[in-house]
Amino acid sequence: MQSPKYTARAHTNIALIKYWGKLDQDLIIPMNSSLSLTLDKFYTDTSVFFDSTLKQDIFRLNNKESSSLKVTHFMKVLREKTGETRFAMINSENHVPSAAGLASSASAFAALALAASRAAGLVLDSRSLSRLARRGSGSATRSIYGGFVEWQQGSDDATSYAVPFEENVAWDLSMIAVVISAKQKKISSSVGMQRVVATSPYYSAWRKTAAQDLAAMKKAIKKRDFRQVGTIAEENAMKMHALNASAHPHFSYFEPASLQVMKIVADLRSNGIFCYYTLDAGPNVKIICQNKDIQTILAALAPSFSQERLVVAGPGPGVKLIDKP
């Protein structure tokens, strides 16, 4: 017996105030609250139906059968929550530029959370959906919503979820993703976080300043103060990466080209083009900018980076069903 098939679309997000470290590894409760911007250019479409004839969950990524311990674990959590006993057929397609090297776990698990819960007969409100998505990937909890989104740390499964801060971003704000590398990271985000929490002498200061950065960022967004938003985001990112340099053994996600982009941005800013960089746990740089400066920034990057490695994005929407019975 087969359940109805549901297809959901979710967009990825870029954290402007990072979370780095987990209070609970299994529940994925963060050490600090965070704030992100959902983007329009990068998204995942995921279809799910349950079938009593299946002997295990089948996961296909971009039309190729794949194995994922995270997906397996997530589906186990979902069945425990819904009482569904059948295994599922999961088809997921990432709409991210080829070899972009941009994290898609946020969009992937947000889309899976909506499609799988509906296929299991559960209609969740946004808060419950955010909590569910969090069990697959921490950043997925924010991709339930569009625009600026705050992930409230909480202390347990019931209290750790995302809330919309400004869903419809109707002011001049864009982001240029500069693709440095699409290779798998040598140190995963989870491993990096654990090492930093356990060994960095500066971790307690991070938690304090991250809370201060979050409060300042929310004020800047309310004022639509672009320069302040960019400044806080850039400084917060650098503080996160400084933790990695202070861990034992120390590590870095930067590549030489990452530093090159950061210098280009700094040079542009010194010449009156206000733009700012941020990096997650990887070498790819995202440049926060205004629409009027996009072509100038792209021209400055063009001698070093091919056009397909420069992707311009804007604020994007939250998760939604795009196909249902």
From TrEMBL:
Q: Does the keyword ATP-binding apply?
A: yes
Q: Which InterPro entries match?
A: GHMP_kinase_C_sf, Mev_decarb, Mev_diP_decarb, MVD-like_N, Mvd1_C, Ribosomal_Su5_D2-typ_SF, Ribsml_uS5_D2-typ_fold_subgr
Q: Which UniProt keywords apply?
A: ATP-binding, Lipid biosynthesis, Lipid metabolism, Lyase, Nucleotide-binding
Occurrences of domain Diphosphomevalonate decarboxylase-like N-terminal (ranges): 10-162
| A Gene Ontology cellular-component term | cytosol
Please tell me which top-level EC class this enzyme sits in.
lyase
List the Gene3D superfamilies hit by this protein, alphabetically. 3.30.230.10, GHMP kinase, C-terminal domain
Per the record, the similarity remark reads: Belongs to the diphosphomevalonate decarboxylase family.
- What is this protein identified as? diphosphomevalonate decarboxylase
Q: What species does this protein belong to? A: Liquorilactobacillus satsumensis DSM 16230 = JCM 12392
